[in-house]
Amino acid sequence: MKDPRIQKLAANLVGYSVDVQPGENVLVEMIGSERDLMNAIIEEVGKKGGNVFVQLTDRTVQRAMLRNATEEMMKTWAEIDLNRMKQMQCYIGIRAGENVNDLSDVPEEKMKLYNALYSHPVHSEQRVKHTKWVVLRYPNASMAQLANTSTEAFEDFYFDVCNLDYAKMDKAQDSLAGLMKRTDKVRITGPGTDLSFSIKDIGAEKCSGQKNIPDGEVYSAPVRNSVNGTISYNTPTLYNGVTFENIKFTFKDGKIVEASSNDTKRLNEILDSDEGARHIGEFAIGFNPHILHPMKDILFDEKIAGSLHFTPGQAYEETDNGNRSSIHWDLVLIQRPDYGGGEIYFDDVLIRKDGIFVIPELECLNPDQLK
């Protein structure tokens, strides 16, 4: 018997998130062994008159490929997949791998090649900029373990989050997006954090289920050389299969001049990937009311209620501050009291304290209003 929640999610992905139109080509990529959602998406694309194409990826096979890849092979691989991506109008990416650490022992130099020669041109430049796309995780025992819940409890949580009324959330985000577009100076304070920068004339974009599921953020970017001060992130993060904790950055005129974590050496190697990796490409505020605690999965963690993320690397085209990099690493700071609290100021006005919006025009984004 089909789970109606899966069919509802598939219908939302196809009809709302990427809004498939008759005759459009849709690439559905599944990383992992889940098939029920994949089959439901194929059915929904068919109902809309779209043409569906499927990519099935196994992380253990990908690991073997990456460990043995040459630069020439990476370029050919990218050329093949870039040609396919150029023929797509829509992309739905589902991540359902059993082990989030499958790529942790791929040598760093191989991952740098992969990010620069494959992921950047195929995804950052083509898929992100030229298709209607959405990416999501799919619940399994591995994700439940990361969230410290039973598999059944995690599935219930997952469908509550992913089948939220995102059209309602979209309208509620108008006030924050408008305020960010009018803002010059931003200051972020909290334990180990006192950071200042400008977002003047950069713009702001709403995220309400069209690009990510789950969703719930509004993003901008700092003026590239305006960032000064220190930020101490309090959320564990995975990068290329490696877990980083207690990341702390100090900025001078936009550049990360000091960086430390539980693996400071590897952290700095990533930040030295290219010149843009030590500058920030995104500043975003998260507010999904159902997501409260980190689970080392950025699609969930960056949407945590009462959080923000401040991202080294590539800027998005919609809020472009000119920063270019082969990386885009969303690092999350939670400011609710149970995580130490903190404040966000726009042009010297307190707009959020301890994770709760405190000015009337933004109260519609607090958890009790979005559920």
Automatic annotation (TrEMBL):
<dbReference type="Pfam" id="PF02073">
    <property type="entry name" value="Peptidase_M29"/>
</dbReference>
<dbReference type="GO" id="GO:0008237">
    <property type="term" value="F:metallopeptidase activity"/>
</dbReference>
<dbReference type="GO" id="GO:0006508">
    <property type="term" value="P:proteolysis"/>
</dbReference>
<keyword id="KW-0031">Aminopeptidase</keyword>
<protein>
    <submittedName>
        <fullName>Aminopeptidase</fullName>
    </submittedName>
</protein>
<dbReference type="InterPro" id="IPR052170">
    <property type="entry name" value="M29_Exopeptidase"/>
</dbReference>
<dbReference type="InterPro" id="IPR000787">
    <property type="entry name" value="Peptidase_M29"/>
</dbReference>
<dbReference type="InterPro" id="IPR035097">
    <property type="entry name" value="M29_N-terminal"/>
</dbReference>
<comment type="similarity">
    <text>Belongs to the peptidase M29 family.</text>
</comment>
<dbReference type="GO" id="GO:0004177">
    <property type="term" value="F:aminopeptidase activity"/>
</dbReference>
<keyword id="KW-0378">Hydrolase</keyword>
<dbReference type="GO" id="GO:0046872">
    <property type="term" value="F:metal ion binding"/>
</dbReference>
<keyword id="KW-0645">Protease</keyword>
<keyword id="KW-0482">Metalloprotease</keyword>
<keyword id="KW-0479">Metal-binding</keyword>
